[in-house]
Amino acid sequence: MKIIVAHSQQQHSYRLAVALERARLLEAYCTTVYYRPRNLTSLAAKVLPPFWRKKATGRHCNELPDAKVIQRTEFGGLAVLFCHNIPFMRRWYWQIKRIVDDRFGRKVAKLAAKTGADAVVCYDGCSAVLFEEVKRLSPGTVTIADMSAANALYLKSVYELDEAERPEFAKSLHSWKRVWDPVDVARTERELAAADAFLCGSTFVERSLGYSNIGPDKCAVCHYGVDTEKFPYRERVEKPESEPLTFVYLGIVGEHKGAAYLFEAFEGIPASKARLVCVGAVRISDSIAAGLPANIELKGMVQHDEVSALLLNADVMLFPSLGDGFSLSIMEGFASGLPVVCSDNTGAADCVIEGENGFVVPTRDAAALRERIEWFCSNRGRIPHMAACARKVVLGLTWDEYYTNAAEAVEDLVRKVRDERK
Q1: CATH 3.40.50.2000 domain residues, the chain
Q2: Which GO terms describe its molecular function (predicted)?
Q3: Which of 43, 52, 136, 265 is the 20 to 30 Å CA partner of 237?
Q4: Which value, to the nearest 10 degrees, does the dihedral of the CA atoms of residues 302, 307, 312, 315 take?
């Protein structure tokens, strides 16, 4: 088979491309921004401040042969990144992203037709035009949506409920325009209609597609991996009652990640018993942040290599997302030896063994989350065993396992679509 992996941004697309390259199935990996000598990305990196320069130079994958990495619309891809990361430019982010996604998609569709690709894998939120153009130019090519997030149409239904109940956090929810903007909603509908099959990061993602009447027969579930070397394990010992437990949240601090429920769950928890450290970009209002108790720390963004130290110094991870495809943050927490409490709308709930390495609580339920926080405070002696169980679960979820499973899943999906077409 000849399979093209395409992503106008990045996410875990390098991983899927490597999986297919190892299986000798990769025709090309297509993207916009990629660091290599004498291209626009490398020139831009030279003038960026250190934090962003490190991110720019990291947009490269040593396991992919340069000859198979094809850049299209590089300038547009850089414009999208600048709009996303520079506050005064964010107002143009979604408009520019749509333009770049569509130009990129048309070029990749032409490449698929030219090479006679058996399949094109692209990602949710940026595939509508690409898949439609593939259908027009190369109707024999199978289109596969790699669903890194849950179905945006399902998420909209969840966010609407939350908006009605938590209006003070509504601005945070609306920051993800793709879920709310009628233009993007229509694009999601087109994308789902033009996809022949779906590679899902979790059973939650598969379930969310059912909201749009897409059955499991069109899906393959393939969990992502975690780099256990970058996230080493530290054996825990029982903390004395005189020391507060450290709960950590890792991700964007916004309502789509369940911020309201996270903060409410911590209300009234004595600082002597527990503290909460939130690591990630803060997307809540200044007034809400200012009103948080002293035992909640908003640490903000840190470099990825700093995350491991923060996790090793924590006791438990909390992740009450309203909808998360398969959080790599949770896998990093498991790898570091953190029991996890997450919502049932979190894909990594697939890996939680109740009471052994964590707990799953109902989505949008602060009381259930608080109950589990208090449980850990009252059962400190259980944490060392749960830490060992947390580490154990990720040993079977390495990226090498993902590479094997993803290649097999994509190949099976292509064969299945072809058989149905006969």
Answers
A1: 3-225+399-421, 245-394
A2: glycosyltransferase activity
A3: 265
A4: 70
Which pLDDT value is given to residue 29? 96
Report the alpha-carbon distance of residue 349 to residue 334 in Å, rounded: 12
Among 258, 306, 284, 273, which Cα is nearest to 175's?
Answer: 284
Nearest-angstrom CA–CA distance, 134 and 299: 44
Residues 155 and 153: their CA atoms lie apart, in Å, by 5
What distance in Å separates the CA atoms of residue 27 and residue 10, rounded to the nearest whole number?
A: 18
* Token pair for 123: 């990602």
Q: Could you give the dihedral angle defined by the CA atoms of residues 193, 195, 199 and 205, in that order, rounded to the nearest 10 degrees?
A: -10
pLDDT digits (tens, 9 = 90+) for 285-297: 999 999 999 999 9
Taking only the tens place, the pLDDT of each residue in 110-159 is: 999 999 999 999 999 999 999 999 999 999 999 999 998 999 999 999 99
Which CATH number does the domain 3-225+399-421 belong to among 3.30.420.40, 3.30.40.230, 3.40.50.2000, 3.40.50.150?
Answer: 3.40.50.2000
Mean pLDDT of 163-185: 88
**Integer Cα distance of 108 and 276 in angstroms:** 45
Count of helices and strands (H, E) across the chain: 18, 13
* The domain defined by 245-394 carries CATH number 3.40.50.2000: yes
Q: Please count the other Cβ atoms lying within 10 Å of the Cβ belonging to residue 217.
A: 8
DSSP for 155-219, written as a single string: HHHHHHHHHHH-GGGHHHHTT-HHHH-HHHHHHHHHHHHH-SEEEESSHHHHHHHGGGT--GGGE
> For 186-212, how does the pLDDT look when each residue is reduced to its tens digit (9 = 90+)?
999 999 999 999 999 999 999 999 999
Q: Cα–Cα distance between 228 and 230 in angstroms, integer?
A: 5
What does the mean pLDDT of the chain come to?
93
